[in-house]
Every structure is written in C-alpha cells, then in structure tokens.
Amino acid sequence: MQFPQLRGKRFPGRVHDAGGFTIIQITITLAIIAIISTFAIIGLSSARASLRLQNSVRQLSAYLEKARLDAIRRHSTSSVVFTDVNTYVVTMDFDGSGTVSTRTLPFENDVSIISTPLPSVTFNWRGRTSACTLTFAVQNSKGEQSWVDVSDAGDVTVDSNVDVVPAVDFATVNTNSDVATSAVVAGSGVHNNTVDCTGGDSGSAGPPISGSGVGCTDTANPSAISIKKNGGGTAQITVTATNTGTVTVSKPTNLNVTPQTQTVSSGGSVSFSITSNNNTRGTFAVNFNSPCTTLTVLVTVTN
Fold this sequence. Notes:
- The protein is α+β, with helices and mostly antiparallel strands.
- The protein has 2 domains: about 35-160, minor pseudopilin epsh domain (minor pseudopilin epsh fold), CATH 3.55.40.10; about 210-300, Immunoglobulin-like (Sandwich), CATH 2.60.40.10.
- Helices cover about 15% and strands about 30% of the residues.
- The protein is built from 1 helix and 18 strands.
- A 5-stranded antiparallel beta sheet has the order 9-10-12-16-14, with no helix packed on it. A 5-stranded mixed beta sheet has the order 11-18-17-13-15, with no helix packed on it.
- A hairpin with an 8-residue loop joins strand 9 (about 210) and strand 10 (about 220).
- The protein is flat, with a radius of gyration of 32 Å.
C-alpha cells in the first residue's frame, strides 16, 4: 500500500546521512602527522649525536685517569696516543698483573678528534706530563664540540680550564711577638704562577708555508698563530699567490674566518681574519686553497 501524502516527510530518530572524513581533512591530518614525525626524528637524531659525543669524551677522560694512576702505581710510564681522528691506543697495565699491554679504542660513530696534530700524552712515574696543558678537542656530526684537558700535573678535566692559575697577591709581613726582628718579607707585586713544564699549546708564529707544484710559490704568513677563545682576539693571515685565481677557506666549526673566499691577482696578497667563536681550545688546522696549492695554518686557541 502506498501513501503519497507521506512522501518527502522526515521522521524523528531516522538516520539519513552517514558520517565520515573528506579527502581534504585526511590529507591535512596526514600532513600534520608527517611534520610532527619529522621534528621528532630530527630531535632524536640530534640527541643521539650529543649522547655519542658525551660517551666518547667520558670514555677518553676515564682512560686518561686510569693511565695516570697506573703510571704512579707501577712507578713507570703509561700513554694515550691517537692513531687517527677516530681511534686511540692506551698502553698500561689493565688488569693489575704488572704486565703492560696495549688496547685500541674507537670513538662512537660520527665522533672525531679535531685537534692538530693528533694529540698524545705520556704520564711519568709521578703522574705528570711534559706539556703545560694538552687539549683533546672532539666534535660530532652535528658540529657540537667538547674537550678534555690534561695539565702538566696530570689533572684531567672535561670542558674546563685546568691551566688557569689565579694571581696571588702578597703583602709585607712585619715583625711581631712571634717573629724574629730580622724576619721581614717585603711584598709589592704579584706572584709568578708560571707552570713548571717545557711544552704547551700557547702557539707562536712560524715561518711562511710555501706551496708545491711547478712554478708555485704561494705562501701563508704566519704559518702558526695563537688567539684567545670565544672571540677574545683576532689573528690576521696573509696569503700570497703566484697565479691569479680564488683563495677559499676550510676550517673547523669553532673558528670563524672572514672572508671565506677572496680573489687574488698574480703575485698579489689577500688577508683573512680568524677568531674563535666558542670555548673549545686546542690547536686546529685552517686550510687556504690557493690557485695552485693548499696552505695549512695552525691556529692555537688559548684562554
């Protein structure tokens, strides 16, 4: 039976439309998920890189401490020597048996030493070294840096300054009831706290480096220089080229060289300014790629 008069009528409680998402809504949702996932992956990758750097530095500092204590205990020597930018060799008595052995230890992935030349340290029977302060500067794939310092006294610190000795003022000591009349110490200056070591990382200007190749006499002057950390000073390097062309710079991330590129004429010279942009210390290689060779300048960053 048909009821024409009911056609087109709506009845309460009857469902006519099915709910759902449009293609645009689904696309927007997927895009948001993709963006969030990308940031999460980037953050996780950065965190892992930082953790690898920290683990590598902690392991290095731990073996430096162990080597120092071993040298004192055996009344002999022990050493930590880098064989390449990712690997170092520790020579000491590892098991306390009195027998010295050697172990090769790697950094974690994407972590490398950036100090130049490859650093090494030997502890003597007193746990001391021959260098004023030796710095092991380390970097990960993200450009994050950390460093381990070993002072001439054998002190090992991470991301600190072991060679900063405060100036000590002293005053005149006059006689009193407990001091003989002849015991008068005159004091009018500051005590000299120069460390008792023969080497160091202070850096000094060396002779110009000459390029190689047929008819190539390019030079970088000076070939070694020292600057203060974290923008505390500026070094000027002059590159003289045999041929007309472009001089470009390659450097570690803790140094800033301006400009990065310069055009030089035949027989002409161009100058570059070098500064430190963080607290990482040590000696680092800055390469100037001239028209006919690569010139390396050693830049030592100090306190």
